[in-house]
Amino acid sequence: MRFSRIVLEQSLQKIGYSDIRLATSGEEALAMATERRADVVLADWVMPEMSGLELLGAIRRLDEQRHWYTAVLLFTAKGGNEALLEAFRHGVDDYLTKPPDHDELAARIYGAGRIASLHNALLQTTDAVQAANRELLAANQIDTLTGLGNRRYLELRLEAMLLSAQTRKSGVCLALVAIDHFKQVNERYSYDVGDEMLNNVALRLRNAVRPTDVITRHGEDTFAIAMAYQEPSHPRPDLFARLVETAGVRPYASDMGNIEITVSIGAHCHQPGAATEPLSDFIGTAEENLSAAKAAGRNGYVYR
């Protein structure tokens, strides 16, 4: 057993992994995972005292308590579809037949790590959204249609971001995203479809930005995204081009069929180290840029 663990550790080191912890039993592995979270756990299906499937169940219960996801791979000498089905019925992410091939091990570990990263990114985003919504509901700063913050919430958060930027010599950017001719959507399809459209745009914008960025509803047809950044070269103009593509290029599915819209974006940024503008001037400049973007045509942006 010890020889197998050492060989496994050496194989993992060869493919670039360094944070490797070795356990001599399922109980010890569970204790290690309890003390410090793991992204991926490799375990033998057959172990003394606690089997691999029992360890898997214990890790799943532990993950539920701390809102985390650990990818679990089992090594087994068992073959056939029945063993495979049994493993997946218990919630295993993947399994390897002993002795594992070096290339197969690398591929399976990479895949398991990606599964864990995706799960945990989703959990982190969900936690951030839920925490923000609790804060908004408590302070009456939420838009009841989309569940986003309202204009008052944006002003409070943006003011705090600008104060922090002044202290830390960092940057802040505000992007206003407006649906072009939104009134025509309501008139042509109905207000219910218009409300559905607003929620769909809000969802696409949420998925396009970082969990730490602040998204609010700024007006009837307009959303605001406040972003903090450290790099002097950010934000790059391709960010706004990507937001245009995300929100306004692909059609939206509805009960009335696919609906195509366009968006206009006006953005204004506080550069690291620059003098801080009053909040009203900062928002006002972004609104002026939005008006310029609308005047210039659809699916475009103005950032200056």
Automatic annotation (TrEMBL):
InterPro entries associated with the record: CheY-like_superfamily, Diguanylate_Cyclase, GGDEF_dom, Nucleotide_cyclase, Rev_trsase/Diguanyl_cyclase, Sig_transdc_resp-reg_receiver
State the SMART domains in the record.
Answer: GGDEF, REC
List, alphabetically, the PROSITE patterns matched. Answer: GGDEF, RESPONSE_REGULATORY
Can you tell which superkingdom this protein's organism belongs to?
Bacteria
Please list the residues that carry the modification 4-aspartylphosphate: D44
Q: What class of enzyme is it?
A: transferase
Q: Which GO terms describe its molecular function?
A: diguanylate cyclase activity
Q: Give residue ranges for domain Response regulatory.
A: 1-113
Q: Which UniProt keywords apply?
A: Phosphoprotein
Coiled-coil residue windows: none
Q: Name one GO biological process term.
A: phosphorelay signal transduction system
Enzyme Commission number, as recorded: 2.7.7.65
Per the record, what are the reactions this protein catalyses? Answer: 2 GTP = 3',3'-c-di-GMP + 2 diphosphate
Domain GGDEF span(s) in chain numbering = 170-304
Protein name (database record): diguanylate cyclase
What is the native source organism of this protein? Acidihalobacter aeolianus
